[in-house]
Amino acid sequence: MSGCPFGGGGPPAENGAAPAATAGKSGVSRRGLLGLAGVGGAGAVAGIAAGLLGRDAVEAAVSPASNVSSAVVPFHGERQAGITTPAQDRLHMAAFDVTTEDRAALIRLLKDWTAAAEAMTAGHTTGGTGAVEGPYDAPPEDTGEALDLDAGRLTLTFGFGAGLFKKDGKARFGLEGRRPEALIDLPHFPGDALDPAKTGGDLVVQACADDPQVAVHAIRNLARIGFGKVRVRWSQLGFGRTSSTSRAQQTPRNLFGFKDGTNNLKAEDGGLLNQHVWAGGGASAGEAWMAGGSYLVARRIRMHIEIWDRTSLREQEALVGRTKGTGAPLSGGEEFTAPNFAVTGKNQQPLIPLDAHVRLAHADQNGGVRMLRRGYNYTDGSDGLGHLDAGLFFIAFVKDPRTHYVPMQMAMARQDTLALEYLKHTGSGLFAVPPGVQPGGFIGEGLFS
Ligand SMILES: C=CC1=C(C)c2cc3[nH]c(cc4nc(cc5[nH]c(cc1n2)c(C)c5CCC(=O)O)C(CCC(=O)O)=C4C)c(C)c3C=C
Ligand SMILES: [Fe+2]
């Protein structure tokens, strides 16, 4: 761990941000604010900070969580971090229902979340006084469990659900005409067994980090800041990324034991990202705020691992269409060899079966569309019937879910034997992820301008 993340060097960021060194803060220290506290008391600090110094000064005054990580992923940038930035190993995602109907309160929340996200992704505590420097008789501004931990490459990625725009037939927050057409209500897919308590949400926050405590701390503090304005609808912990988002990363494995993420879109795929991941400005002026953003599809997919574990290796490989050991396609070669769907074996049957997952998911079968997958394994205890509630928390970022997710999911739900016999979708969400935040701006600013 090194010195201040705003002062040091750093590699170029992959979210279009300047390196940490130039991302830029003026560097008012927490100690400086505490000096003010001596004049008016710590309680006055918040008022001074919020009212007189302005948000930049408050942001700059965040207190270091202790050591500052060299592993800081810049929060600011053209795109939000947590999409093409290298996938970390831990996830805590939370969806929130917005309980206030006050537009100003919602904007205030997004500004407060921005300030907290800037602080936490830099390895700092939240608020002007952090976890232990505030008034003794008031709850601390930061919950404290990340003290002594570094930034852990924390990324916080924010998205807006359909319920932010309209709920129970009523437009909300003056956002009529601003809902992007691509932010559809996902259709019911055959076999869906969605739990309403694990589905939907007006806002989503994806927290990814190297350390689960860092990710959990981040969501917890955002929920605390949102008290009285938002309520957690569902949250999901994940471990063991199930995708690579950079060619520098080794392909990880899912809970079926297979390499997952081999043929994922990766940060290095520049032009393809424009084609398949980054959203355009939409057909109407009202949705221009989404240009450069993306759409996040989340699906909680339970895997029937006990049945899988009694399935032969031959059958497992046929279901996936790749070998379990190396991840090579069944048509031959090594992990990154392109699958050949035409080649047949001794019995004239295709080496990659017609119902294999990789065949049905491949761009050739889906009008050329691709997606950037960024999912995680999960286990949430057991179901009381002797089975683990385990699976894959599928996350994908796509340019437009109508073309880049729904048709592929529909085909899988109908024809993919892996999906039909071994998977059950129990939760779901679709969120519009706005472009990145610039210094001095706030999350989703364009939506409110
Ligand atoms: C609708 C999209 C997809 C869902 C849902 C999905 C679920 C799912 N996938 C696996 C395991 C693997 N998937 C692999 C490849 C793959 N999967 C999708 C899409 C969905 N998967 C795509 C687009 C691809 C790439 C296809 C290609 O272009 O070749 C693989 C192979 C390795 C890889 O390329 O990543 C595995 C293994 C599980 C277990 C699962 C649900 C629990
Ligand atoms: Fe897949």
TrEMBL record:
Signal sequence interval, chain numbering: none
UniProt-annotated stretches for the region Disordered: 1-24, 124-143
Record GO cellular component, one term: cytosol
Residue ranges of every copy of the Dyp-type peroxidase N-terminal domain listed in the record: 80-239
Main location: other
GO process annotations (BP): iron import into cell
Keywords for the protein's UniProt record, in alphabetical order: Heme, Iron, Lyase, Metal-binding, Oxidoreductase, Peroxidase, Signal
Domain Dyp-type peroxidase C-terminal: 251-437
Cofactor: heme b
Bound cofactor: record note: Binds 1 heme b (iron(II)-protoporphyrin IX) group non-covalently per subunit.
EC number annotated for this UniProt entry: 1.11.1.-
Low complexity bias locations: 12-24
GO molecular function, one term: peroxidase activity
PANTHER family in the record: DEFERROCHELATASE, DEFERROCHELATASE/PEROXIDASE
Record function comment: Involved in the recovery of exogenous heme iron. Extracts iron from heme while preserving the protoporphyrin ring intact.
Entry similarity comment: Belongs to the DyP-type peroxidase family.
UniProt name for this protein: Deferrochelatase
Originating organism: Pseudarthrobacter enclensis
Lineage, highest ranks first: Bacteria, Bacillati, Actinomycetota, Actinomycetes, Micrococcales
